[in-house]
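OP here, attaching both records as promised.
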Amino acid sequence: MCYRKVTPRTVVWIANRDIPITDSSGVLKVTDQGVLILLNSPNEIILSSNASGPVENPTAQFLESGNLVVKNGNPENFLWQSFDHPTSTLLPDMKIGRNKSKGQEWYLSSNKSSDDPSTGNFTIGLIPMAILSYSSGRD
């Protein structure tokens, strides 16, 4: 995913950054179960999203925000979205942090180098901290 109006062209999200497809043979599909898959030329799965629950007529769509989503009828409820998988660039509406109840964590990780977008050595995120308060029970 790139910004259109930024020169030079700047990649801001890569689905398969650690297993790149080096030619134009990649195919992106949405299965009947709502799973987004990326296949290389020998039809090996390079990327597979997850979907839970029954789906009917799932579709993939790039939103104006740059978020790639898999939808199931309800435009507000996504089966999967790229913004839940940030890479090296934080875009508007992306999250950084943790959703403990869903077991999700969002953080940024550097690219290996300026011409190698695979996962680098640095990450940035939020570490939840407990804020303790003390009350003696006296007014």
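Record two, same layout:
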Amino acid sequence: MSYQPLSELAIGKPIGDIRVRILRKWFGINFKKNQMITFDLLLMDEKGTVLQASMTKTHSNSFDSNIKEGSIYVISNFKVTRPKPSFNVISAPYMITISRETLFVQIELNDLIIHAYHFEFAEFDTLQSRAKKNYILTDVIGLITSISMLSKVYVSNNPEQVARRIVQLKNLRGEMMIATLWGDFALIVDDQLIGQRTNRILILAAATVNEFRGKNSLSICSASKVYIDLDLPIVADMKASYKLSMIVEDESSTASFIAFSDVGEELTGTPVSRLALIGDLDQYILPEPIKKKLIGQKTLFAVNPITKDTDSEELTFRVNSSRILDGPQPPAITLSITASSEAKPSTQLTKKQLQQEEEEHPSSPPPSQIQKDLFPESPAKKLEPSCCRESSPLKEPKLE
């Protein structure tokens, strides 16, 4: 049986059955009136398209108990409508409206690959434009750098005290943001983490952006979800002890790349444990020997996007592997590292393409000279990788 992809749904067009995973479910609640308004779902199909679905509270009781997060369903007899006027968890031109006639049939397919999570991460420096504007809610990810004690406070229209905890997050750029967790969400973060240096990564999905005294902060709403240390590549990246930020360019444009851990060490030719021996190292300025090696070099990259500025549509890419090239190269598939400050989407290379290019254009010899230039009084040798992997991401100095 064939199913209609979510990407082919549109208002006013014929609608077929869809096969999707339920990524999230939640009740839309008006906290000022303490009333439930809607029952909502976030759906994803096997092509990776994501849509929000919603039903009125009248029909919610018959669906909530029978719908499980993470399970796969065939859904039929629904409508395609415009997004809600506020509190949408994704950016999409339409949504699915569920009625009493809508059917959900749970199925078991072990060989069907549909991701379990979907986030549209926003950079912290773009949150100002979202303050007090809740048409689309905000997803953020960050390293937990500080945690407040659990407290209980009174809030409007609630006769009982509500648990509250304040968490400070640091993103990939080193920027800080405060998030306030309420109710059961405040209990997700353990009190034992208070005062400790950890590498716990928190994802706050569908948050609201508030502004107080000129500063932005995040808070939860009824659509929010909080996750800690999910098994995702971006979480592993943020736990890494080594991060190298680059602006690269080809003949078409420029882009922002980030290399973590072993990939960053391979590019610079220096393990983070060696860089830590430089007493006056500035984490925002590359040492001169590394600059000479990287700036202007023709390099092949295999990359994938990790974050997106949802306001400007600019992407940041994670470097999976790289190879510095010798001699003249085809300009359409090579990128050079530059000092440019702009960042726009650019050429991506798959690992297969990278391997083919490496075979045609051999790499440069190992860059042991860089370590000799950085540490002239000590032999240039590669330390054991475990020394780098065990170091905390909060320890300074580190190269960014």
